[in-house]
């Protein structure tokens, strides 16, 4: 598997392997990574990972584990044993859960990147209040990013709106993987904290997760080429 320098991660949010491989066959593993999330993995299982590895892609397994420390550490280890490039947990699972997961990878000498979801990009301040979070999204992301870094993980999932702040407090090397990426003309859909690809990179995102703006486009490869052009110009 060739490591790519591209920040792009294409979210393969499909209900079957045929649809996912059809898009993957049009993509170039030298120009992006792919993300396998809950829908595809629940329907297809590890075969989806194997199919992407056979095509030369590095895979982000986005299952957002959130459970007791022993259970999550085991799940993270299982993901890493399948050779994925990146896997994630929910930072809200807490310090001991994150430390146990990071420690498990270290003990086994596994190089899979481990990151934690701070606040879902579909949520804004009003929804956070509803679930009992007193502050705004920015302060909650900041709190969980600090905890994630102290727990020994490689980075976080956040929105690009928080990337600049996290670059300042957690440093350049701490990964800022940002979904909620929308070219100016794309529909926002269920996402609330969005940013354009070029603005996200300028703000300090290290990786951009792009799903429907490409996968649901009339011509996915044209949509992707436009995003790449915007990034090159930026
Ligand atoms: O906070 C988060 C964490 C994960 N995601 C995932 O990223 C993609 C985004 O897809 P779009 O179609 O570009 O909106 C999707 O797989 C989510 O599960 C997220 O959006 N926000």
Automatic annotation (TrEMBL):
Under which pathway is this protein filed? Pyrimidine metabolism; UMP biosynthesis via de novo pathway; UMP from orotate: step 2/2
The entry's active site is: 64
The signal sequence is none
> Which EC number(s) are documented for this chain?
4.1.1.23
Q: Where does substrate bind?
A: 13, 35, 62-71, 121, 182, 191, 211-212
SMART domains in UniProt:
OMPdecase
Lyase as UniProt keyword = yes
**Role noted for this protein:** Catalyzes the decarboxylation of orotidine 5'-monophosphate (OMP) to uridine 5'-monophosphate (UMP).
Assigned protein family: Belongs to the OMP decarboxylase family. Type 1 subfamily.
What's the protein name?
Answer: Orotidine 5'-phosphate decarboxylase
Q: Which organism is it from?
A: Salinicola endophyticus
Gene that specifies this protein: pyrF
């Amino acid at each position: 598997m060739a490591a790519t320098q591209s920040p792009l991660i294409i979210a393969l949010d499909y209900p079957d392997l045929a649809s996912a491989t059809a898009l993957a066959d049009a993509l170039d593993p030298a120009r992006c990574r792919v993300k396998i999330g809950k829908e595809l993995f629940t329907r297809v299982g590890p075969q989806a990972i194997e199919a992407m590895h056979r095509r030369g892609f590095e895979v982000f397994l986005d299952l957002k584990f959130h459970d007791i420390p022993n259970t999550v550490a085991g799940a993270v280890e299982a993901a890493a044993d399948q050779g994925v490039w990146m896997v994630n947990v929910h930072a809200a699972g807490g310090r001991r859960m994150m430390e146990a997961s990071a420690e498990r990878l270290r003990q086994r000498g596994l190089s899979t990147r481990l990151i934690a979801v701070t606040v879902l990009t579909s949520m804004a301040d009003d929804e956070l209040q509803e679930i009992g979070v007193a502050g705004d999204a920015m302060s909650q992301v900041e709190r969980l990013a600090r905890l994630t870094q102290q727990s020994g993980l490689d980075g976080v999932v956040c929105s690009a709106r928080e990337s600049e702040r996290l670059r300042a407090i957690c440093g350049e090397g701490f990964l800022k993987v940002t979904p909620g990426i929308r070219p100016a003309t794309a529909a926002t859909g269920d996402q609330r904290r969005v940013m354009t690809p070029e603005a996200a990179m300028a703000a300090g995102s290290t990786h951009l997760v792009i799903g429907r703006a490409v996968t649901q486009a009339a011509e996915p490869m044209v949509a992707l080429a436009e995003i790449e052009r915007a990034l090159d110009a930026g």
